[in-house]
Amino acid sequence: MRYHFIIFILTLFGPFCFSQVKQVEPPRLVVGIKVDGLQSEHLRSMWNYFTPGGFRKIISESVAIEKMRYNIVSAGNASDVATLMTGTYPFFHGIIGDYFYNRAENQEYSILFDKNQNGIGTKDKFSAHRLLTSTFTDELKLNSPQSMVHSVSIDSEDAIMMGGHTANSVSWIDDASNRWATTTYYSRGLSRWADMMNVDGSFKKIVDTKWTPAAAINTYINPTAGGSKSIGFSYNPNDRQKGNASKSILKNTPSANTLVAELTRTIFEKEQLGTDKFTDVLMLQFTVKIPNQIASSLVFAEQEDIYIRLDREIQTLLSLFSSRIGDEKMLVFLVGNGSDYHSPVELGKNQIPAGLFNADRAIALLNTYLMAIYGQEKWISGYYGKNIYLNKSKIDEKKINLAEIQNKITDFLLEFEGIQAAYTSQNVINFTGDFSDPRAKFRNSFHKKTSGDIVISLMPGWIEVDNKGRVVGQGNNPQLFIPFYMLGSRLKAKSLSGSYNITDIAPTISKLVGIPAPNGSVGSVIELNP
Predict the structure, then answer these.
(1) Domain with CATH 3.40.720.10 in the chain
(2) What is the average per-residue pLDDT within 7-21?
(3) pTM across the whole model
(4) pLDDT above 60 (res 19)
(5) What CATH number has the domain spanning 29-339+480-513?
(6) Distance between CA atoms of 519 and 530, rounded to whole angstroms?
(7) Number of H helices, E strands in the chain
(8) Extended strands (E) in 186-279
(9) Contact 129, 500 (CB under 8 A)
(10) What are the distances in angstroms from CA 416 to CA 158, 321, 459, 467?
C-alpha cells in the first residue's frame, strides 16, 4: 500500500516538481576576440591608457587565465586558430601551419589552397577543406541551423579557421587589392555588408587615413620605431611592404582593426544578431603588431598607439552589443597567440643568445652533405616551417635505408646555429613521453598527410623567417603561454592559476552554449565557477 501511495504522489506532483527546475539559458551572442601579439604583460603596462569599457572591462570582469599552455608548435595563424576552434591538435585537425610542401607537385602551397574554389575580391583560391575536424561554430550550426556565425578578420587564415566549414559569412582583408575578400567555399559568398564597404568607398576611406600618434608623442612610454621620443611617426597604410611590393602594410596598422570593427558593427546591426532564442557567434581577429615587427615585445610608441586605438574600438563594440541585447545575454572571450616575450634583436642587444633562422642555407648544406655520401642527387625535396621533406622516390630507387639517412640528417643538423634538436617522423609519431616534454608538442603538431620526414626545433630566442620575410610561428621557447579571458553573466570574475591548455577553450565554450564539443576535441572543460 505504501509503495502504491508513493507512486500516486509522484504521478500527481512529479511534473510540477520537475517544472520548477530552472533551465539555464545559453547566451544569445558569443563574441570571440583574437588579438595577434596580445600579451598580459602588455595589458598591465598599458592599463592607465585604456578606457573603462575596453580591455579594462574584459580583464576586470573575466575569468582570467594569463598563462594558458600552448601545447603545439607555433607554425602560423592557421594552425593556431584551428587548434583553438577545434579543441584538438594538428595531429587530428590536419592544419600544421600556414603553408605546407606538396610532395606530388614539388611545390609549397598555402594550407588554405583549394583548386576547386574561387576567390571573391581576391585571386586566392581558398577553403577550409583541409580542416579535418569540426569547430565549435560548426557544432553550433549542426545543432541549431538557425544560429548565425560570422567571421571577420584581418588575415585569411584566421577568417577561415574561425568560420570553420559552415559559417554564414567569412571576410578578410586582401592586402594586394585592399578590399574585403572571401571564397566561393561559403555558399552565401561575400557578406553583402562587406561588399557594400568595398563599393561605397568606406573601405578605401579607412585605408587612406594616415596613421599618426593619437596623443602627444612625449606621453608614450617608449620611443618610436625610429628611436625618437619627441618626433611623432607617420604611416600610410597603402605603402608597400619591404621585400614584397605586391602587398601593402595595411594589416599591421590601426586601419585594419578599424575595418574589422566597422564591418562587425554593420553585421551585428543589419543581421540583428542575438535578438532571438538561437545563439549567434561573432569571431573577430585584431592585431597589435606594427609594420616589419618580428616578435611581440612592447618596445615602440607605435605598438602603444595601436593598443590604445584598439581598446577604443573594443569599447565601442561591447557598448553597442550591450545596449542592444544586454550583458546578461552575452559571452565574450579574448585570447592572444603564442609568441615570445622578446625579439631576437632585443635579446641580442642585451648579449643574450638569439637570432633569425632561415632554412635555405641549412638545407643547401644538408643536401651537399648527403650528395657526398649517397651521390649527386637532390635528396631533399622541400622544406617549410621546421619540416624537411625527403626525396623518397629517389631513396627507394637507390635502395637506401630510410631510417639510416634520417639518422644521418638529424645528427648533421645539430651542428647548425639556432637548431636545438632534430627528430625523425618515426621519433615524433612514436613518442609516448610526458606532455610536459617539449617533444610532445611536435607529436601534437604532426599530421601524416602534410608533415615532413624530419622536424627541427629551434633554440629559445630564435625565430624562423622564410625567404619572403614572413615569420613562421611566433615563438620557439620550450614553454609558450597565451592569455585567455572570458566574461559572461554566469561567470564570476577571478584568476585561475591551474594548468590549462589552448585545446580546453573549444569544449568549454561548447558546454556554456549547450552544444556537443567538436568531434576531434581532446581538451577538458574548464571549471569556470569552481
Answers:
(1) 29-339+480-513
(2) 44
(3) 0.90
(4) no
(5) 3.40.720.10
(6) 26
(7) 18, 20
(8) 240-241, 244-248
(9) no
(10) 33, 52, 11, 18
